[in-house]
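input
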Amino acid sequence: MGDAGDPRARIFLVEDEALLRLMLQDMLLDLGYSVSGVAQTVEEASRLARDIDCDLALLDVNLNGVPTYPVAEISRQIPLIFATGYGRHRPPQPLDEIVVLQKPFTSAALSSAIAKALRPSQR
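output
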């Protein structure tokens, strides 16, 4: 598995807004990460999460009105980050230990959240 800043770290990106998804992919690549998979619906993300080979999943909390908590449950074996534009979001237990990134965010904030999520103590 890659470490924070390791160019081999692979990110599974789950985001429903096309422009934001493309922007996030560019941000991740600029930070030295690779994108191992992309999903835009809970169904697609759930299907991919079962088999995807990645080091971290970046999940939008809400995809077209549907929470991504089931995807997080499937992906619990890897570090996770929830991204949300709904103010101070607190996921339900047992997902409440997951790093939360408030939208809109900068590349520096994304980098910091990834580094925090990839720390062994955060898993």
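quick obs: The chain has four helices and seven strands.
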